[in-house]
Amino acid sequence: MADEEKDRLRGAYRAAGRVLRRTLKPDEQAELDQVATGEVVIVTGEYDHIRRVFEATQIPFTEVAPDDVHRLDFERLEVLLINCPGHLPSRGLEATGTWVRRGGYLLTTDWALKHVLEPLFPNTVRHNGRQTDDRVVRVETEAAVEDPLLSGLLEAERDPLWWLESASYPIEVLDQEKVKVLIRSAEVGRLWGADPVVVTFEEGQGTVTHLLSHLYLQRSEVRDQADARPAAAYAVSLGLSDAQAEEALREAPGLNLSDLKSAYSTSRLLSKAVLAAKRKRAKDPLDRN
Questions:
Q1: pTM value?
Q2: Which structural domains are found in the chain, ordered by start?
């Protein structure tokens, strides 16, 4: 990726973080402000950069290397995000699986499907053995419209698109009753033999959510003249005033609507995941048995 593209996307995420904070409900804002050290942990990877999204949204997090996962304070941990590729030593995998079954919330991306979910939760989901191209595909969201995690993530009024990284792992669902497919893509199914894009399932007392490709977008794409409009138009469409939109975008001049929309969507998904995990933990404390 060219340096200019990297700088624009980083600017898009910084702006999206400020816009997100303006659009959160007061109770959501308060809950995110109360996230304590050790409650949200990101496992470092080589290909996804979830850390940048959290930095932009100002949600506190701890970052650990894969070799240190087994040392986490699992009593305090609420959300664990594993970056692609997800190579964890066996003791880290075992600790993660135990924590999920006791009530943890695990979010994984791309190659973690094969390296984390397959060994931890066999006969649930798996990599179908193929790899995608680097492209943008159309997705269908009928199953996701009512899901609070993905509310507002994709557009309902026209064909939503999903950004795929080169060599992403298509998701094959093995347990049709257990696994809920939130987003599908007929295009992905036709090209690579499996159409799920976002899946989730309950495991013991906990929850697992997995996404095809990466949460931190490595590029953006303008689809039409509407996407090429200035980013402020999107901020205003979310309820910000002109002045608030200008303030949110002050350090990211030149962003188009597509840049901000893409960054805002993934920032919103992560904030929703953290809120869902915190609310679940408050209602159902971690099972100590």
A1: 0.88
A2: 3-223+261-283 (3.40.50.880)
